C-alpha cells in the first residue's frame, strides 16, 4: 500500500515562524523607500528655485534648506541614485571577481594552485579597505565608475575566502566524488552541485556584503572620493550639513536615515528569505523520516 499521498500527523509538521511575515514586510518597506527615491526621485524634481537663508525652514521648503540655502527635499530626491547604483554595482562586481578563484581553489586537488590563488588575497586582507581606497584616490581621482570598481576590488579577498570555505565543505562530500567518477566536467560539478550547496551562505553573505559596501561608498563620498564636493549625494549631504545639525536637523537626519534604511532593509530581506526556506526542508525531512520509519504491512497467507 502506498503511503506517500497520506497526510502527516500534525506533530510531525514543523511550526511556522511567527516573525517571518513581519520581518519580510518591514525589510521590504525599509528597502523600498530609499530605492524608490533613488530611481524615481530625479523624475519628480523640477528646476532649482531661488536660494534662501541657510539652515532655515522657510515657506516652500518642506524639509528646510541646507548650508548653501538650497532646498533639502530636492537634494534628497536627486542624491540617492549615485549611492545605490555604486553600491549595487560594487557588490555584484565583487562576487563576479571572487567566485572563479574561490571555486577553483575549493575544487582543485593541487595544493600549489590553491596557495597561488588564495595567499595573495590574504595579503590584501591585511590592509584596511578604507585606507586602500584613500591611497588609490591620492594617485588618481576616480569617478563614480572608478569608485565602484575600487570598492569591488577591496571586497574581493574576504568574499573569496567565504565562498571558498563554503565551497570546500560542499566539495568534500561523497556526491562530488561520485560526479567525478561518472565523468562529469568541472563546470558541471562547480555550478551544478557545489554552487547550489553554497546558495544559503552566499545569500547570507550578500546582505552583509551589501551593507559593508554601502557604508564604504558612503564614507568615501563623505570624504570626497568618487563624487564632486557639491554633488547631490546623500553622503555628501551629511558631510556638508553636519555643522547645522542642531539648527536644521532634517538636512542631516533624512539622508542618514535613508542610508540606514537601505542597509537594514537589505539584511532583513536576506534573513527573511533564508528563514522562509527552512520550513520546506523541515517538512521534507519529516516526510522522509515518516515514510522510512513507518512499518510496512505484510501480506497474510492467501487462501486457495
TrEMBL record:
<keyword id="KW-0812">Transmembrane</keyword>
<dbReference type="Pfam" id="PF00528">
    <property type="entry name" value="BPD_transp_1"/>
</dbReference>
<feature type="transmembrane region" description="Helical">
    <location>
        <begin position="123"/>
        <end position="154"/>
    </location>
</feature>
<keyword id="KW-0472">Membrane</keyword>
<dbReference type="InterPro" id="IPR000515">
    <property type="entry name" value="MetI-like"/>
</dbReference>
<feature type="transmembrane region" description="Helical">
    <location>
        <begin position="249"/>
        <end position="270"/>
    </location>
</feature>
<protein>
    <submittedName>
        <fullName>ABC transporter permease subunit</fullName>
    </submittedName>
</protein>
<dbReference type="InterPro" id="IPR050366">
    <property type="entry name" value="BP-dependent_transpt_permease"/>
</dbReference>
<keyword id="KW-1133">Transmembrane helix</keyword>
<feature type="transmembrane region" description="Helical">
    <location>
        <begin position="212"/>
        <end position="229"/>
    </location>
</feature>
<keyword id="KW-0813">Transport</keyword>
<feature type="domain" description="ABC transmembrane type-1">
    <location>
        <begin position="80"/>
        <end position="270"/>
    </location>
</feature>
<keyword id="KW-1003">Cell membrane</keyword>
<feature type="transmembrane region" description="Helical">
    <location>
        <begin position="20"/>
        <end position="44"/>
    </location>
</feature>
<dbReference type="InterPro" id="IPR035906">
    <property type="entry name" value="MetI-like_sf"/>
</dbReference>
<feature type="transmembrane region" description="Helical">
    <location>
        <begin position="83"/>
        <end position="103"/>
    </location>
</feature>
<comment type="similarity">
    <text>Belongs to the binding-protein-dependent transport system permease family.</text>
</comment>
